[in-house]
Prior knowledge:
Mean pLDDT: 88
Main location: cytoplasm
Shape: elongated
Subunit structure: Homodimer.
CATH superfamily of the largest domain: SPOUT methyltransferase, trefoil knot domain
Number of helices: 11
Family: Belongs to the class IV-like SAM-binding methyltransferase superfamily. RNA methyltransferase TrmH family.
Structural class: alpha/beta
Helix content: 40-55%
Largest sheet: 7 strands, parallel
Number of strands: 7
CATH topology of the largest domain: Alpha/beta knot
Amino acid sequence: MITENISIKNSCSHVIIVLVEPAGPLNVGSVARVMKNFGLSKLILVNPQCDRSCFDATKMAVHGQDILASAVIVDTLPQALQGCVRAIATIGRDYSGEIPVENPRTALPWLLETLEKPVALIFGREDRGLTNEELNYAHKLVFIPTSPEYPSLNLAAAVAICCYELSQSSSLFIDDNKSTVEIAPLDAMEAYYQELESLLLAIGYLYPHTAASRMEKFRHLYNRAYLQTGEVGMLRGILRQVEWAINRSK
């Protein structure tokens, strides 16, 4: 049993659980508890609507109170994803966008392929989940199949299911298979998207009223490519050179 616990911790320790605007302290405490159960320790709360240190939260955390106490609080989802190289978001509703939707068993092992490099598993609000804009920050989406008679899952239950699937997959990825590829962190990608949008607006390829939808397609295209840090630097260099050439010709 001790060996199994160490294996889970080593394989999943780079996975960050991100809760976006959680409202229920009981849920937040329960999430910390299930994270402890499955060897995860990094929790980020995005603009939480409850007090993580209140009695209800700490009571439900039980032996996961250290995770609760060390949870990082940020204002926005992009801040939570800084440094992460991969991100999967959970959904509990119909989705007709272009991001792949999978079940946890097939999708979550993908997070474990980048050993020791931070990756994020994102959960939305208890009442309405994640917005379409927030979903665009993820490479993949996960939907947990439930009974149509009562499809709504409690936040902590959804986290528990995903943590369990991660722990079951963790034995497939060992240190000998570490990737040497430096995948670009999501905040570097976000900086590139901002520069790209600014340039495309300046040259008239994008229009302000349609920029968001067109940039969404660019995000999906680049997210499928899993660009390396050097490649993103090269693309940003091209944008800067184009801007320099435009300004020089004026």
